[in-house]
Amino acid sequence: MNNVMHKAQELAEAIVESSVYQRMHAAELQVNKDEASVKAVSDFVEKRQAVESILASNNMDHSALAEAGKAMEAAEKAMNEVPLIMEMQEARREFTQMMENVNRILRLVITGETEDECDCGDHHHHHGGCTGSCSTCGGCH
Question: In whole angstroms, what is the distance from residue 141 CA to residue 124 CA?
Answer without folding.
Answer: 27
